Structures are given as structure tokens and as C-alpha cells.
Amino acid sequence: MSIIIRWVINALALMFVAYILPNIDISGFYIALITALILGLINAFIRPFLLLITLPINILTLGLFTFVINALLFWFVASFIEGFNVAGFWAAFFGALIFSIISSLATQLVIGPRERF
Hints:
- It is built from 6 helices and 2 strands; from the N terminus they run H-E-H-H-H-H-E-H.
- The chain has helices spanning 2-20, 29-45, 47-53, 55-60, 65-80, 89-110, and strands at 24-26, 84-86.
- The mean pLDDT is 92.
């Protein structure tokens, strides 16, 4: 049950990001649900591989290159989902940053620290 709650929280966080950032557009809640699902799957399966490949760069930048990877994955998802548009890299950068902050805070408030998985 908590997976479904987290999925809806991520979709709502994505809609909030699209509301506050002018360069990110999302056409509706259904598209936000699909986008949140695809973002979750890509972050679960592709992101660890990318972090492993870019480990030397991450070490040199003290982990700040992870923000770039998050932005590129956010932008990548927007490139193939109709109804979810990101105007450029900086929009993806700030969108991914705000999305992760809002999503994690809202998940902690709704689900709580005990029930993580």
C-alpha cells in the first residue's frame, strides 16, 4: 500500500514542480502518474549504473555530479513522454532538485520514517 501512496505523492510533487517552474509543463494528473512511474523505474535501474560509471567524476566533485545525473535523467524522461515537457538543462536541473526535495519531505510526512519499503 505504501508503494501506491509514494507513487501518488511523487505525481503530486511533479505537478507542483510544473506549477512553480515556468519551463516545465505537464498536461494532467494522468501524465504525472505515468511520469512518476517512469522516473521511479529509471532511478531504480539506470541511475545506479550511471553513478557507478561516473564514480571518478563524482569523487572529484565531492558528489555534486550526482545533481547533473539527476537532471539528465529528468530531462531524458521528458524527451519520450507526451505531455511532459522540460525546456532545457537548467529547467531539468532545478526541476529534479525541487522534485526530490518535495517528494522526500512529503513521503516522510505521510508515510513516516518507519515504513520505508
